[in-house]
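Notes from the 1:1 (GR / supervisor)

We went over the backlog. Supervisor wanted to see one worked example end to end before approving the batch request, so GR pasted a single chain during the call. The sequence is below; no edits were made to it. Supervisor asked that the structure be written out right there so they could see what the output format looks like.
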Amino acid sequence: GAIAAEALAQANPNQLIANRKGAMNLQGKYLGPVLGMSLGRAPYDAKIVQRNVEYLTVLNQLPWDDFQPHTAGNPNTRAKEDVFKDPAKFKAGIESMQGEVQKLAAVVRGGGDQNAVKPAAQAVGRACNSCHESFATFEFRFRVE
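Structure output shown during the call:
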């Protein structure tokens, strides 16, 4: 047990960064179509929306443990150092996004149609964008309008 704890404490920064990028990319992969369908940019398919939102409820739990202080300043990261300078604000952003995903999941599980899903999906996209604006160096933003 002690060896495992020591190994986790000294996790390779490049692996941590790769892990969190992978989880974030998957979040985008599954949120993007939900937003597109809810905004009328693609035909609405309730089954795909339900599947994607179920995936999001898991995926939005994954990347956060990999934001470790020893990854700050690594050339492979696109996270601003503010992630580590203001961890309370970063945590609040995470919690906001996770809360919006849970609201979206409740709407979808409740049989919400495109009109019901739209504002909930937009709120998730806005939460993601807000965190990216504060804590990421790249320009990706979800189109929520």
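Supervisor's comment: Helices lie at 2-9, 13-38, 46-59, 82-85, 87-109, 114-135.
Batch request approved.
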